[in-house]
UniProtKB/TrEMBL annotation:
InterPro entries according to UniProt: PorP/SprF_Bacteroidetes
Record's keyword terms, sorted: Signal
Signal peptide as annotated in the record: 1-24
Pfam families the UniProt entry points to: PorP_SprF
The protein's name: Type IX secretion system membrane protein PorP/SprF
Source domain of life: Bacteria
Organism, scientific name: Hufsiella arboris
């Protein structure tokens, strides 16, 4: 009976997840990493200046889940020795009856391997929380036992990453989270909690910060996300800065959703998301920036769903 309840709950959760794949819902990891790489890799803390802070808010425009949003904040900086960095980041996401919270305290150590090559290694300790309010769901069978209780998971988490920077222009990073999950009971929440909260996730990031004498700047980046035993995603992003005042950008994301654990004829499903964005530098020193991004799913059926509005604020104090 216990196993039957788990399977029933799993089916309900999967229906929730699949029902949102046809429109741009609020993402746990949306465009935050464009403004702060700390969200995907702890080794990036302290690499942008003496003190960095940013806030990110994503709001779903309309659709099945009116109560849909993502809030992210990050603060990081350098210690007095300029060789190690610290950082705190928090992300809270809600999509209908689903809610997610992740938070980390991060530390990174920076080493100059040569005059052009720098390496950083970082670790983060925090927690993850996943919750589905089953009571508010409408079930086919009245008083279905599977909908009498909430699905809830809360656990400690650890993550680690490494970063390389060449000639102060090109960078690359590799990181993993959910490192403690290998020691947890694999039967706990096996049918309810998504794989990204139960299995190790890998993030591979490549990018560049290119500045030109005519006042233009170009920042391309590529992010690859792999949940071992789960979903795969990659994102291409390009930003063009003009006169150190205004920046225009475009991002393309492809999600490959694993369906092997469900009773469907397909083993995976895909969705494509496009994010045009604009960012304005309020101060001449680039210390305060405001940004706006509109995310939309290119494969959504007409009239089913729309997109999401993303707002960002970035504050930076450069190293003297």
């Amino acid at each position: 009976m216990k196993r039957l309840l788990k399977l029933t709950a799993a089916g309900t959760v999967m229906c929730l997840l699949l029902s949102g794949k046809s429109f741009a819902q609020a993402d746990l990891l949306g465009g935050q990493y464009i403004f702060s790489k700390v969200y995907v890799n702890p080794s990036f803390v302290g690499t942008d200046g003496r003190l960095n802070a940013n806030a990110y808010y994503q709001m779903n425009e309309s659709g099945q889940a009116s109560n849909s949003y993502t809030i992210s904040t990050d603060v990081d900086g350098l210690f007095a020795n300029n060789k190690s960095g610290w950082g705190l980041n928090l992300t809270r996401s809600r999509f209908g009856n689903d809610s997610y919270t992740v938070a980390y305290a991060n530390y990174a150590y920076h080493v100059d391997l040569s005059s052009d090559l720098k390496m950083s290694s970082g670790v983060g300790i925090g927690f993850q929380q996943f919750d589905i309010s089953m009571v508010q769901l409408q079930t086919v069978t009245e008083n279905d036992p599977a909908a009498m209780n909430n699905v809830y998971s809360s656990k400690l988490d650890a993550r680690a990453g490494i970063r390389l920077e060449y000639s102060s222009k090109f960078y690359g990073g590799l990181s993993f989270d959910n490192l403690i999950s290998v020691y947890s009971n694999k039967e706990d929440y096996q049918y309810q909690v998504p794989p990204m909260f139960r299995k190790i996730n890998m993030y591979a990031l490549l990018g560049a910060n290119l500045e030109y004498s005519n006042g233009f700047g170009f920042q391309p980046s590529f992010l690859f996300i792999k949940t071992f035993g789960g979903n795969t995603a990659f994102e291409l992003n390009a930003m063009l800065e003009m006169a150190k005042t205004i920046t225009f950008g475009i991002a393309f994301r492809q999600d490959i959703i694993d369906l092997k654990s469900t009773n469907t004829s397909d083993d995976h499903s895909t969705q494509s998301i496009i994010r045009p964005l604009i960012q304005y530098n309020v101060s001449k020193t680039n210390s305060l920036k405001f940004g706006y991004c509109y995310s939309f799913n290119t494969g959504r059926p007409t009239g089913v769903g729309k997109g999401s509005h993303d707002l960002s604020v970035v504050f930076n104090l450069p190293v003297k």
